[in-house]
Structure formats: C-alpha cells, structure tokens
Amino acid sequence: MIKYLQSSGVSRKELARYADLSLEDLAAAESRLSPSQLQRLWQLIQSRILPTLSFSVQVRPLIADQLARGRVRIEVVAAQLNMSRHTLYKKLKEENLTFAALLEDVRRERALTYLQDRSKPLVEIAEQLGFSELSAFSRAFKRWMGTSPAEYRAAAA
C-alpha cells in the first residue's frame, strides 16, 4: 500500500504523518504496520487519492475483493460505488473499458501472482480466480500469456 500511495504522488513525509509514524518506521515493511496505521493510510487513499484517479483504477480493487470472496458480480461492485450497474458501465465506457475487460485484467494479474507460489495447485488457482474448471483457466491463461499456466510456472523456475 505504501508504494502505491507514493506512486500516486503522496510524499513520504505525508504518509508518515497520516500513519503516525517516523520516516524511519515508514521504511519498515508494510506488514509491520498496525491495523490503526493501515486504516489511517486507507483514509488517506479515500480522501485524497481516489478522487483524483481514473474511475477504472477505483473499480479494480473492488473487483479484486469480490474475486477473493468468490463470484464477481457487477451489481455488488456498483453498489459499493453507490451507483447503478448502468452508471458503472457508462463510466467505464468513457475510459473505453468494459467491466468484463477489467475483470479479465484483474484475473490475469492475480494469476501471475498466484503462480509464483509453487505449492499452490493449478486447480486451486483456477478456483480462486473464479474459473469453473482448470481447463477454462488454462485457455484464458494461454490467451493472456501465450503459454499454459504449467509451462509458465516451469519457465519461471
């Protein structure tokens, strides 16, 4: 989260102030931050950064959250943004995007991350990404990366 905030133009000093940390402590791993410090950083994201980001950048983490919980439903994402499904489609269209394209992009990013964990079976990764079967995941992955998930994982070794 810290790298994300810094890439969005928030200074290290400002991050430290919002997290109630020294600059040295801010340099420590994100996992060492307390829940209250992470909450303050999230409030910073919501109040200062999200309003300046493109709409699709705001939608991505909501899709990722739904994906982590199971099935992704556009109605749920739209409700989290306090808008109708139609308005969500319209705002994405303004950026020449579709909900399906964003979902596929988030799935691809997650797949690449999950494949780094060699102990995680491909079937489990397919399920976590919302695919009905391993074969559906394999076809999608081959479309994205030009190789099967197993071949990609083997080549990364």
TrEMBL record:
<protein>
    <recommendedName>
        <fullName>HTH araC/xylS-type domain-containing protein</fullName>
    </recommendedName>
</protein>
<dbReference type="GO" id="GO:0003700">
    <property type="term" value="F:DNA-binding transcription factor activity"/>
</dbReference>
<keyword id="KW-0238">DNA-binding</keyword>
<keyword id="KW-0804">Transcription</keyword>
<dbReference type="GO" id="GO:0005829">
    <property type="term" value="C:cytosol"/>
</dbReference>
<dbReference type="InterPro" id="IPR009057">
    <property type="entry name" value="Homeodomain-like_sf"/>
</dbReference>
<dbReference type="InterPro" id="IPR018060">
    <property type="entry name" value="HTH_AraC"/>
</dbReference>
<dbReference type="InterPro" id="IPR020449">
    <property type="entry name" value="Tscrpt_reg_AraC-type_HTH"/>
</dbReference>
<dbReference type="GO" id="GO:0000976">
    <property type="term" value="F:transcription cis-regulatory region binding"/>
</dbReference>
<keyword id="KW-0805">Transcription regulation</keyword>
<dbReference type="Pfam" id="PF12833">
    <property type="entry name" value="HTH_18"/>
</dbReference>
<feature type="domain" description="HTH araC/xylS-type">
    <location>
        <begin position="57"/>
        <end position="155"/>
    </location>
</feature>
